[in-house]
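Sequence only, no structure available. Ideas?
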Amino acid sequence: MVLTWVSPFNSVNGYGLFRVMTTARPEIVIEVSDNGTAWKEQEFRWKPGAVARRPRFVEPHMPRLDWQMWFAALGRCEDAPWFQAFLERLAQGSPPVVALLARNPFPDAPPLYLRSTLYDYHFTDVKTLRAGGTWWRRTEMGPFCPTVTSAPEVP
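Reply:
I predicted one. Tokens follow.
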């Protein structure tokens, strides 16, 4: 009742970073390859990835890259130029960028191909978790960004 009376003055609002929480959990999974055929998933330190990996306890720390990945997944590749730059730096094997990740599947040389796929993640139920140790189920939603390559062009 009071809100109805004061709303025309625009002095009260629902502003806030998490005024409305998302109900879906889209996640970007990055895969890397040295031949464009066999792909390895790039693991992040904190965000969901492998379905059997237990969620990490993060609070009160909020890892910047993993946090930004969550927001990128809520939009489109074109709306996240930082993500495209991130993929390019991974393709170059930039040590500071690679160090932000949980592990490097190509420690001797940077990958030649990187692709990003959008998935919808959900927690599994207790029965599934106990039976197989699977924390997540994920459904592929399609490519997020075009594949990045540093492979030389074949004439």
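The mean pLDDT is 87.
Hope that gets you unstuck.
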